[in-house]
Give the backbone structure.
Amino acid sequence: EVLDPEQNHSFNDHYLEVDLDLSEVMFIATANSLNIPPALLDRMEVIRIPGYTEDEKLNIARRYLLPKQMKANGLKPEELSVSDAAMVDIIRYYTRESGVRNLEREVSKICRKVVKEISLTESKAGKGKGKSTAAKAGSKPARKSAKTLTAISITPKNLAKYLGVRRFQYGRAEDRDEIGLVTGLAWTEVGGELLSIEASTVSGKGKLLHTGHLGEVMQESIQAALSVVRSRSEQLGIDPDFHQKFDIHVHVPEGATPKDGPSAGIAMCTALVSSLTRIPVRSDVAMTGEITLRGRVLPIGGLKEKLLAAHRGGIKTVLIPEDNQKDLADIPKNITQALKIKPVRWIDEVLALALSEVPQPRQGGQGEAAAAPAESDDASSTAGVRPH
């Protein structure tokens, strides 16, 4: 009743036992998740606020967080300096969030340790003097002028001294092209991330395995991707009966992390085609998009966060659904200029851009050889798992 504009003009408070007119009140609610009762959600206008970019976090930390924490810990501007490179390392390796709450905690930790370091330095300097000198200075010890002390500078080299070992790994692209290994893009509550997707084919009876703590929607995406590959097997140079002769295993690393959503559909399909045709996937290409049984690429959400993750990971080319071009207006120009963003409409366009060479149509019985897993160790159909 409180949020319903048709009823809240005479809301009755059961504690005060009076009627309150709330019709002119604007209610603002914030949440990290929309898992609330549908009746309540239906009465709200949802405004999605994307996370901060790395540049935005750097400016917030430089202009607001660092001065605030230095003042709170009694530090003078000339006593502590934090380089931009060190601040970027804090953002990348010590925090993983869409906001700046943990970033402020890390900056505060640095300030506290710097205060301790300065105090110990002053204490050691005071012990080196004679008692007579201390008596002349008066009974009340005075803090040394900052000019007599060496200002503490935080750089990437000494950052671990104040914050410890790195807690997170900064996402990066694969070093070389791999067979059956595709770089996808994922959206999380703490921003975008690179998502490795692996596909392997081995001799068997046509079983389809999927591992990596995948949700129901993501499992259905694998089924759809497999059907797309089967429908295009002839033009891709793949044995039409591959689904009866080989077991297919799709794996998404970091199995402890739950994953779900349809946006990895084209990445799943590309990984399957690469594993079956033995054609490596370009390591500098990332992609996102849902796939239909006809091979159509459908739009996705969280494009800004995904492009930011691609930029951080050293990706050169990003494939996005054609229907998501309108969302590029909300992406910072420095990101769109640094990436080659390729809108795609069909899976055929994706394969042409993502694979190191275009699959050749099957002629006679040659496609069966293309689908068979290689015997040599150098061309193993299972892509090696690399840490992100």
Notes: The domain at 181-379 is CATH 3.30.230.10 (Ribosomal Protein S5; domain 2). The chain has three domains: 8-41, 54-130+144-163, 181-379. Confidence is low (pLDDT under 50) at residues 141-148, 365-388.
